[in-house]
Amino acid sequence: MAAATGPSFWLGNETLKVPLALFALNRQRLCERLRKNTAVQAGSAVVLQGGEETQRYCTDTGVLFRQESFFHWAFGVTEPGCYGVINVDTRTSTLFVPRLPPSHATWMGKIHSKEHFKEKYAVDDVQYTDEIASVLTSRSPSVLLTLRGVNTDSGSICREASFEGISKFNVNNTILHPEIVECRVFKTDMELEVLRYTNKISSEAHREVMKAVKVGMKEYEMESLFEHYCYSRGGMRHSSYTCICGSGENSAVLHYGHAGAPNDKTIQDGDMCVFDMGGEYYCFASDITCSFPANGKFTPDQKAIYEAVLRSCRAVMSAMKPGVWWPDMHRLADRIHLEELTRIGLLTGSVDAMVQVHLGAVFMPHGLGHLLGLDVHDVGGYPEVSALAEGRTGASRTWGRQGDFCKCPSCHLPRWPRPCERWGRAESQSHGPAEAQHMGVVWSCPVCSSRPTPPGHAHGLSASVHTRARAGVLLTAPVPLPGKPRGKPGPRLLEPRMVLTVEPGIYFIDHLLDEALADPTRSCFFNREVLQRFRGFGGVRIEEDVVVTDTGMELLTCVPRTVEEVEACMAGQDKAFAPFSGPK
């Protein structure tokens, strides 16, 4: 990143200086989008509310604060309890900060002036939060654009700005969300530099873990080492998500590391390790997975599965470019996995026939990747649900949550997603119960009718990656609501400046294998004797972070990937390796 000429965020030493101009540019981009929207009135003002500090349950122990991502995208403010206002016509910005009591100086440190925050965050004006209603009244905005929309990964509704006296203003809470989401999808040069940095530090931390891991160590020791490196070398106080340090059978637990399985197994000789970890700098995420044998040497079976996943990962990256349909990349990875599993004798028969019954989902029960940015599962992977209501294409992970699956009543395909109640409740708040109910009954089988997402697929660029229960669902032929015209199919295509993960994997998950073996349409492809060899194997996942360029992609992640490179790194050999380079 070029030397910053104005205020910057910087944690000293060799950490990255991030110019606050990054956020001024984001505000400018948002205003430009809004001014092109014919529904936006002259004199409109965007009002965003930042995150609030929280305590641990009923105690007075504070939880480490991390800024709300939409607010951070627009202002880069690290303190809690703030508001931000942007005049859409003039592009001027006002930051509202809390008026702190004198006791704050005793317990929390110096109370800074409004001028301090104006200079620190390069905004046009700073006022106190208890003055927001009076300040806005004096400026007479025609309408306040507030943020309300559903996060298609969590199903939760983002927090809409609210303050005492807001009811006196004309408020619109439907325009802003889709516009700011689209802004966040496409990264600026300055944002890309921060994401390159998060990947650089996180890649280095992964290499340190690979050098340090030894049989007999605890998984949590590797988590600790990774987080220590990211913080001490990169200023990354937060991780992008809970570290996943699965070894042995745990390497097939897609969201391992949670409170019920807290990376607490002892690493055994012969284990395969899947370590999925990413550091976060100034709210910018990274998401990297490395897989390797605990003892530093691949067995023939481990090598076969690892190289199958590596082949699919690199094939996808080679094929990526603007205009590519993401579901095609998932199908490419699935096909390569099936070809490789057939080559090693675990499967037999026609790969085309395996594809028809979605056999790949048995081994990769998650999507191929998701957008990455201020959130590890960044916004914009699926169009707004309102686009569905207008007859346009759309998808939502929240249609397929854990337990929300049944068999197709026609062809009896297992794991057919059905609408989940949580989505209906969330969406009925913004689209009305009639629309939500209607949208909840139109989904049909991926084989015998208009196709939602087949098992394991993610037909958006969203967070349908670690668990089958979180798989996205796409309308390939959008279903109109009553009185709405049917639109043309057209899911999200890759475009320049999107940042996303590519994370294929092959796992041997007992209950999925047992389901497949009990299904005659899929069991016929298995060589049960060879399959038995892989029971308890765990899994392999390779996850890269990439930027879509004008003609291909740029790989941000820099870790050993070939078998030879992994073994050399684990042996402590720091020889140079050549990161994969697809079409630029």
From TrEMBL:
<dbReference type="InterPro" id="IPR029149">
    <property type="entry name" value="Creatin/AminoP/Spt16_N"/>
</dbReference>
<keyword id="KW-0464">Manganese</keyword>
<comment type="function">
    <text>Dipeptidase that catalyzes the hydrolysis of dipeptides with a prolyl (Xaa-Pro) or hydroxyprolyl residue in the C-terminal position. The preferred dipeptide substrate is Gly-Pro, but other Xaa-Pro dipeptides, such as Ala-Pro, Met-Pro, Phe-Pro, Val-Pro and Leu-Pro, can be cleaved. Plays an important role in collagen metabolism because the high level of iminoacids in collagen.</text>
</comment>
<protein>
    <recommendedName>
        <fullName>Xaa-Pro dipeptidase</fullName>
        <ecNumber>3.4.13.9</ecNumber>
    </recommendedName>
</protein>
<dbReference type="InterPro" id="IPR000994">
    <property type="entry name" value="Pept_M24"/>
</dbReference>
<keyword id="KW-0224">Dipeptidase</keyword>
<dbReference type="GO" id="GO:0030145">
    <property type="term" value="F:manganese ion binding"/>
</dbReference>
<keyword id="KW-0645">Protease</keyword>
<dbReference type="GO" id="GO:0006508">
    <property type="term" value="P:proteolysis"/>
</dbReference>
<dbReference type="InterPro" id="IPR052433">
    <property type="entry name" value="X-Pro_dipept-like"/>
</dbReference>
<dbReference type="GO" id="GO:0070006">
    <property type="term" value="F:metalloaminopeptidase activity"/>
</dbReference>
<keyword id="KW-0479">Metal-binding</keyword>
<dbReference type="Pfam" id="PF00557">
    <property type="entry name" value="Peptidase_M24"/>
</dbReference>
<dbReference type="InterPro" id="IPR001131">
    <property type="entry name" value="Peptidase_M24B_aminopep-P_CS"/>
</dbReference>
<comment type="similarity">
    <text>Belongs to the peptidase M24B family. Eukaryotic-type prolidase subfamily.</text>
</comment>
<keyword id="KW-0177">Collagen degradation</keyword>
<keyword id="KW-0597">Phosphoprotein</keyword>
<feature type="domain" description="Aminopeptidase P N-terminal">
    <location>
        <begin position="18"/>
        <end position="155"/>
    </location>
</feature>
<dbReference type="Pfam" id="PF05195">
    <property type="entry name" value="AMP_N"/>
</dbReference>
<keyword id="KW-0007">Acetylation</keyword>
<keyword id="KW-0482">Metalloprotease</keyword>
<comment type="subunit">
    <text>Homodimer.</text>
</comment>
<keyword id="KW-0378">Hydrolase</keyword>
<dbReference type="GO" id="GO:0030574">
    <property type="term" value="P:collagen catabolic process"/>
</dbReference>
<dbReference type="InterPro" id="IPR007865">
    <property type="entry name" value="Aminopep_P_N"/>
</dbReference>
<dbReference type="InterPro" id="IPR036005">
    <property type="entry name" value="Creatinase/aminopeptidase-like"/>
</dbReference>
<dbReference type="GO" id="GO:0102009">
    <property type="term" value="F:proline dipeptidase activity"/>
</dbReference>
